[in-house]
Structure formats: C-alpha cells, structure tokens
Amino acid sequence: MVDAGVSFGVGLLIGGLGLMLGWGLLWLVVGAIGLARETCGWAIFMSSVSSTAIAGGAMAGVLWVVDSARLGSSALHAGLAGVPLALLVAGFCRLEDGRRIGPAFLEGSRLMLHQLLGVHEEGCGHCHEKPVEEPPCHQKPCYEHSCHEKPCEGKP
Predict the structure, then answer these.
(1) Can you say whether the dihedral through the CA atoms of 125, 129, 133, 136 is positive or negative?
(2) Does residue 111 lie in a domain region?
C-alpha cells in the first residue's frame, strides 16, 4: 500500500513538472518570437528560459531517482493524470465575479500572448492594411447622425 502511494505521489510530481515544462516551452517560444520582433524584453525571455530549465531539470532528476520498475505501475499512471484532472475540475469552478476559472484563464493567456507578440500594435499584425468589405454602418443598424454625413450615407 505504501509502495502504491509512493508511486502515485511520484506520478503527481512527474505530471506537474511535465505540465510546467510544457507551459514553459510554450512561453519560451512566445518570448523568443517577441524578442525577435522587439515587442517584449529580455526579462520575459529569460524568465521563460529559467522556468523551462528548472522544470526540465527537476523532472529529469525525479526520473533519474525513481526505480525503473516503478515507472510501469498503474498507481504512477493514475498520478500522472492527477494534475491535469485537478486543473480540469478547477477550471469549472467560479471566480468571485462569477466567471469560470478555465475560460478566464484562457482569455488572460490569449491577451498576454497578443501583448507579447505585439499583435495589436501598429504595423505588426497588419490589421490596418486589410480592406473592409463594406462601411461599418452597412454592417449593423446605425442611429448616429454623424454616420450619415459620411460617404456611407446612401445605405440600403
């Protein structure tokens, strides 16, 4: 029973470190692209490098210390699934403002990604160069008087 508990704990540790390593690698790539585009500084990139190196080193250390026979146990495999399942369950909980944690986390990550990559800064996402198919007042009902003084006055 103790052996199964140790295997489960090692699985939780490896699962958490693996998740941390994957997250660190994602932000390492984002930081490298942001650094190349000059939309983020060296501090972001070095933070990504350090978190990836720490997670990778710790995971390698745990795998080196663990007995190879333990790596095939079902308790370890259950432990590996423990961290992602805990995050999945936590994602359905609500924040104080009523939003769910999962979608709020994904939205925050998306905004941080866009900020680091400079997607919404002038010239880098090239959004300003895309032609608009029709004037904005043709896309939805318009009740502004100033809109009808512009070239789109003859809307259908």
Answers:
(1) positive
(2) yes
